[in-house]
């Protein structure tokens, strides 16, 4: 067997090895994160529920989801252990890292335009001249000129009318 024949198999085995190694590394980090949980820390479950850890057992975690609401979850169901600042920002809406108390988005758009005068209506500002978009009729004349040049002398036919008399 030549090396060219074995090369695809070698590449395939190498790719499988790298994928399983990175998956094992992520799984090990998740296990370490779950083992570092302590009572009082904020967590997010894999279902997206935010709660505070009340008690940590070997395979389960007792979560406090609100006043009088205690839930028992498997440790594997914890998606992330959050820092105190992040948990308070998400659950209670408390921001500690604001650099200034200035509104980030103004109440009106006048400050974004740079002028304080009211906007002029676009239809009133136009010259009431038709805009030539460069469209040509089949004959080569502009579409508006062809429509004006064609007289409407003959009456239109109804569904039951015909040219035979």
Describe the structure.
This protein has a 5-stranded antiparallel beta sheet with strand order 4-3-2-1-5. The N and C termini lie far apart (89 Å). Strand 2 and strand 3 form a beta hairpin. The longest helix has 33 residues, at 3-35. It has 165 residues and is of the alpha+beta class. It contains 5 helices and 5 strands, in the order αβββββαααα. The protein has helices at residues 3-35, 84-91, 110-113, 122-125, 143-149, and strands at 42-45, 50-56, 60-66, 69-74, 78-82. The chain is extended.
Itemize the secondary structure elements and their pairings.
Elements: H1 3-35, E1 42-45, E2 50-56, E3 60-66, E4 69-74, E5 78-82, H2 84-91, H3 110-113, H4 122-125, H5 143-149
Antiparallel strand pairs: 1-2, 1-5, 2-3, 3-4
Q: Per DSSP, what share of the residues sits in E-state strands of 2 or more residues?
A: 15-25%
Mean pLDDT: 77
How many distinct beta strands?
Answer: 5
Distance between the termini: 89 Å
The H-and-E topology, N to C, reads as: HEEEEEHHHH
Counting DSSP H or I runs of 4 or more residues, the number of helices is 5
What does the overall shape look like? Answer: extended
Q: What would you report as the Rg, rounded to the nearest angstrom?
A: 36 Å
> Would you identify the regions where 5 or more consecutive residues have pLDDT less than 50?
none
Main beta-sheet strand count, sense and barrel state: 5 strands, antiparallel
Placed side by side, the strands forming the largest sheet appear as: 4-3-2-1-5
Class of secondary structure makeup: alpha+beta
The helical percent reads 25-40%
């Amino acid at each position: 067997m030549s090396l060219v024949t074995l090369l695809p198999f070698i590449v395939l085995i190498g790719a499988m090895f790298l994928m399983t190694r990175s998956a094992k590394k992520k799984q090990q980090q998740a296990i370490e994160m779950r083992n570092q949980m302590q009572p009082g820390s904020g967590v997010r479950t894999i279902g997206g529920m935010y709660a505070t850890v009340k008690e940590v057992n070997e395979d389960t975690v007792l979560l406090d989801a609100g006043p009088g609401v205690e839930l028992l979850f498997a440790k594997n169901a914890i998606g992330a252990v959050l820092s105190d600042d992040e948990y308070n920002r998400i659950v209670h809406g408390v921001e500690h890292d604001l650099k200034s108390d200035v509104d980030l988005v103004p109440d009106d758009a006048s400050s974004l335009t740079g002028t304080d005068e009211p906007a002029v209506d676009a239809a009133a500002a136009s010259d009431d001249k038709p805009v030539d978009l460069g469209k040509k009729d089949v004959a080569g004349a502009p579409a508006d000129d062809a429509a004006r040049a064609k007289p409407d002398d003959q009456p239109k036919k109804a569904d039951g009318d015909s040219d035979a008399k």
